[in-house]
Amino acid sequence: MEQILQKGAILLLSGPSGCGKSSLLNEVYKDIDNYYFSISTTTRDPRVGETHGVEYFFTTKEQFIDDINNGNFLEWAEVHGNYYGTSLIPIQKALDEKKLVIFDIDVQGFEQVKEKFSNITTTVFITTPSLSELEKRLNTRGTDSQDIIQKRITNAKKEIKYISQYDYLLINDDFKLAAKELVSIANIVQIKSSLFNHKNIISKWLN
Ligand code: 5GP
User: Fold this and answer.
1) Distance (Å) from CA 22 to ligand 1 centroid
2) pLDDT attached to residue 3
3) What is the rounded distance in angstroms from the CA atom of residue 175 to the CA atom of residue 188?
4) Among candidate residues 77, 167, 85, 87, the one with its CA nearest the CA of residue 121
5) What are phi and psi of 18, to 5 degrees?
6) Second CATH level (architecture) for the domain 9-206
7) Quick one: which of 17, 12, 30 has its CA closest to 172?
8) Which of 85, 153, 175, 185 could form a disulfide with 73 if both were Cys (CB 3.0 to 4.6 A apart)?
9) What is the position in ligand 1's atom list of the atom closest to the CA of 55?
């Protein structure tokens, strides 16, 4: 099938911080093939257990601004007072290799990626069943100070309003079920008709 694909596909996930996007992704990787997770660059401090080059590339504000000015980002945004961005080159490479490129980015990044790659992008909004459940998860995660948790909750109330703009909605209530649904989405987006070289297929089919 790879020969008839024009390029890879993008699976873009957004949702309030603490809704379980990273845990869900870690759960589904074993069940999907040929994917590339886009490791973002951020100016926020690493959390306990995070490693440079695994969850994020951690950088300084000065370096981040230089990268913006040099056109190194496919998209970037300021979220909760820190900068986050997606580097352009690894994404182009993964798409040329016809991979499923997975983004975990906020609603501002969503708008920028949709604008640039609408044909090949499928979007999923992930959330907890309620705001109080999100607050509970952010508090029990124990990785952030009260001040940071409050910023994330304030932002979550804004982000939830984007829910209708996404192709799929995952309510992460039952973790196993949500993971299963995410695997289904990851598989189905790779056979989206707009990813294929239709002319090529038709001419081969006619012969
Ligand atoms: P966290 O600090 O919890 O890891 O991430 C905070 C928010 O930033 C999350 O909503 C996450 O999806 C978003 N985010 C992470 N990387 C990027 C990125 O490269 N671009 C944008 N626009 N948002 C990002």
Assistant:
1) 11
2) 59
3) 20
4) 167
5) 105, 0
6) 3-Layer(aba) Sandwich (3.40)
7) 17
8) 85
9) 4
pLDDT at 2 over 60: no
Task: Band the pLDDT of 7: cuts 50, 70, 90.
Answer: confident
pLDDT in tens, 46-79: 998 999 999 999 999 999 999 999 999 999 999 9
Residue 113 in contact with ligand 1 by CB distance below 6 A: no
Token readout for 116 is 């640039």
To test ligand 1's pocket by mutation, which of 52, 106, 110, 159 has the most ligand atoms within 8 angstroms of CB?
A: 106
Separation between Cα atoms, residue 26 and residue 53, nearest integer Å: 16
> What are the domain boundaries of the chain?
9-206
Query: Could you read off the pLDDT of 151-174 as tens digits, one per residue?
Result: 999 999 999 999 999 999 999 999
Non-local (6+) Cβ contacts of 123 within 8 A are 12, 13, 14, 110, 114, 165, 166, 167, 168
